[in-house]
Amino acid sequence: MSNLLFDRLFKCHEGETKSFLIFADGSEQSYDNFLKKTARFANVIQSLGLVVGDRLAAQIEKSPEALALYAACVQSGIIFLPLNKAYTPNEVSYFVGDSGAKLIVADENFNLEDIAHEHGALLESLNTDGSGSFVEYSQNASEKFETVTRAADDLVAFLYTSGTTGRSKGAMLTHKNLLSNAETLVNEWEFDEHDVLLHALPIFHTHGLFVATNTILLAKGSMIFLQDFSTDMVIHSLPKASTMMGVPTFYTRLLDDPRLTSDLTSHMRLFISGSAPLLAETHIQFESRTGHRILERYGMTETNMNTSNPYHGERRAGTVGRALPGVDIKITNPNTGKKLADGEIGQIEVRGPNVFVGYWNMPGKTREELRENGFFITGDLGLIDDLGYLQIVGRNKDLIISGGYNIYPKEIELLLDDQPGILESAVIGAPHPDFGESVIGVIVADGSQPIDLDVIEGALGKNLARFKRPRKLFVVDSLPRNTMGKVQKNMIRDLFGSTFQG
Ligand code: MLC
Ligand code: AMP
Fold first, then answer.
1. Which of 114, 122, 66, 107 is nearest to 93 (CA)?
2. I want to staple 446 with a disulfide (CB 3.0 to 4.6 A). Which of 7, 349, 410, 423 is the partner?
3. Atom of ligand 1 at shortest range from CA of 230
4. What's the CA angle centered on 418, arms 415 and 419, to 5 degrees?
5. Residue 406 C-alpha to ligand 1 middle, in angstroms?
6. Cβ neighbours of residue 315 under 8 Å, at least 6 residues apart?
7. 182 in Cβ contact with 217 (< 8 Å)
8. How would you write 155-200 as a 3-class SS string?
C-alpha cells in the first residue's frame, strides 16, 4: 500500500519533533503535530462521504490548517482545488460547478452558502484563527488514518488557470508531476534539513504551495510561515531564514526599504524569484545592495518549474536559466510548430514528468495546447541564448501578470461589454512600478445612455477579484483596428502605457 506523494513528502515525518512551521509570533509547529492534524482532517473528509477522486474546493486564508487540508487531501486520495481568497462568490461558483467539487471548505467571511446550495456541494468552514465547523469535527477525529493508495499517474490537484477565451481551465496535476518537480528543485537548489525558508507567498498557487512547500517538505527543512507579504515582517524574519522565494514585487518592495542591507542578508544562502519577469535592473540593484544574485526560474501552473538559473555558475540577469534536469525545452515556429535554431525567437514548448496531464473536461483545449508527443505549448515567447539560457521575450497569449497573479483581459472585456451603454472594450496591461504590470480598461460608448463609471466599477466589483479590476478606465471614441478588424492592443498600449509611470 503506498501513496507516492504522501509517503515522500509527509509520512516520512511521522514522530518528528522538529519544527515544520515557524510563525510570526515566534511559536512553532512540529512535523508530528502537523501530521496528526492532517490525519484528523483526512478522517473528517472521509466521514463527510468523499471518496477517492472526489474534488474538494478550498477558499481559505493562509494558515497551518490550510496546509494540513492540502496534506489531508493527498492522504485520502481527494483532489485538492485551492482557490484564490480574492475571488468573488460569482467566480467561485464557476470553479465549483466546473470541477463538480463535492465539498467546499471556506472561510465563513466568504459567504459561499448560496454557491454550495446551487451546486449541491457540502460546505464546511475553516477560518484563519483555526475555528469553523470543519475544525470542530476534527477535534473528535482520530489521529490515525489509513493512507489511501495512490500511484504516480493518479490525480492529486486541480489548479485553475484563466484562459484567453475568458473561461478558466482546471489543470490536472498528478502525484508524479508534483514529486518529480520537488525532487529536482531540492537537488538543483541544494535544499536540506538545515534550510529555513521565508514563506510569504499565498498557498493557493503553484509557487507558494508546490514550489515552496513541497520543496521544504522533501528536504525536511522548516518554513517561517507569514500570513502574507509585508516588508516589515519579511525584514524582521530574514535573520532567522536561510532562503526566500518570491515574486518580483517582493524584491522591488524590499529594495524600496533602506533596512535591506548586506548585513541583514549576509547569512542568507539563496533568494529565488519567479512567476513574473524580474527586471534585469532589479537583479542588479539587489546584488549591489546585498551582494546576492537572485536566482530566477520559470514555471507555470500546468508545468510546475521548467528552467532555472544555476545554483553554482552564472545567474544571468534577464534570463530564466537552463532547462531543469529531465525537462526538455524547445523553441518553435508558432505557425508551423517546427523547431527553431538557438537565438531565434519563437514559442516555448516544454516536456517532462512535470507537465500536467490535461485540462479537466476540456479535451479540445488539451489537444490544442498539449501535443501528442508530450510537448506543452506554453504561450510564452522566447529564445535560447549562446550559453543555453532561456530568455522570455514576450507572450503569444493575451495575458497580464500583476504582482505575480495572472489576469486574462478577455474575462474583463466580456464583463465590460455586458454593461449598459458600452459598445465594446479592450483591456491591456501597462507597466506598473509595484506590480510589474497593472490593468487598464478602454471602453467605447454605444450612445444609448451616458457612461457611468461608478456603475461599471460596481458591476465589475461583484464579479471580479480586486486584483483583476482595472485600476483605470478610459472612454474613447473607437478602438484602433487593423484591416482584418482585429483590435490593435499595441496601439492602445502606446496611448495609455505610461498611465502608472511617475
Ligand atoms: C493585491 N492587490 C493586487 C495584487 N495583490 N492588485 C493587483 N495585483 C496584485 N498582485 C490589490 C489588493 O486587493 C488591494 O486592492 C491593493 O492591490 C493593494 O494591496 P496591497 O496591500 O498593496 O497588496 P498586497 O496584499 O501587499 O499584495 C501584493 C503582493 C501579492 C504582490 C504581495 O499580490 C502576492 O503575494 N502576489 C504573489 C502572487 C503569487 O504567488 N503568484 C504565483 C502564481 S504561480 P484595493 O483595491 O483594496 O486597494 C505561477 C507559476 C510560477 O505563476 O511560475 O510560479
Ligand atoms: P501561471 O499561469 O499563473 O502559472 O503563470 C505562468 C506564467 O507566468 C508563464 O506562462 C509566464 O508567462 C510567467 N512566468 C513565470 N515565471 C516567469 C519568469 N521567471 N519570467 C517571466 N515570466 C514568468
1. 114
2. 423
3. 26
4. 100
5. 10
6. 283, 293, 294, 295, 296, 309, 321
7. yes
8. EEEEEEECCCCCCCEEEEEEHHHHHHHHHHHHHHCCCCCCCEEEEC
For 159-205, write each residue's pLDDT tens digit: 999 877 778 999 999 999 999 999 999 999 999 999 999 999 999 99
pLDDT of residue 485: 84
Coil, helix or strand at residue 63 = coil
C-alpha cell at 181: 518537480
> Atom 18 (ligand 1): residue with closest C-alpha?
467
Classified as helix, coil or strand, 104 is strand
Flag residues of the chain having pLDDT under 50: none
267 CB contacts (<8 Å, ≥6 apart)? 239, 242
Q: What is the pLDDT of residue 335?
A: 93
CATH 3.10.320.10 fits 189-293, yes or no: no
Q: Which residue has the cell 550559453?
A: 387
Question: Which residue lies with its CA nearest to atom 29 of ligand 1?
Answer: 403
Nearest CA to ligand 1 atom 45: 466
Domain coordinates in residue numbering, the chain? 4-151, 189-293, 399-496
Mutate to test the pocket of ligand 1, among 162, 201, 229, 306 (most ligand atoms within 8 A of CB): 229
pTM for the whole structure: 0.96
Query: CA-CA distances (angstroms) from residue 200 to 60, 143, 497?
Result: 16, 29, 30
Give me the pLDDT at residue 1, please.
72
pLDDT of residue 90: 94
Ligand 2 environment, Cβ below 6 A? 161, 206, 274-277, 296, 298-301, 320, 378, 380, 392, 395, 401, 406
The architecture CATH gives domain 399-496: 2-Layer Sandwich (3.30)
Ligand nearest to the CA of 404: 1
Residue 130 grid coordinates: 483555526
Q: What CA–CA distances, in Å, run from 73 to 98, 187, 314, 412, 468? A: 19, 26, 40, 33, 29
- Summarize pLDDT for 63-81 with one digit per residue, the tens: 999 999 999 999 999 999 9
Helix axes 89-99, 453-463, angle to 10 degrees: 40
Residue 302 neighbours by CB distance under 10 Å:
26
3-state secondary structure 280-334: HHHHHHHHHHHCCCCEEEEEECCCEEEEECCCCCCCCCCCCCEECCCCEEEEECC
Strands in 38-154 per DSSP E: 55-59, 79-82, 103-106, 122-125
Chain-centroid distance, C-alpha 174: 17
CATH of domain 4-151: 3.40.50.12780
Q: Which atom of ligand 1 is nearest to the CA of 247?
A: 37
Which residues surround ligand 1 with Cβ inside 6 Å?
Answer: 201-202, 205-208, 228-229, 247, 249, 274-275, 299-301, 402-405, 435, 466-467
Ligand with minimal distance to 185 CA: 1
The bound ligand whose nearest atom lies closest to the alpha carbon of 378 is 2
Atom of ligand 1 nearest to the CA of 228: 35
4-151 shares its CATH topology with 189-293: yes
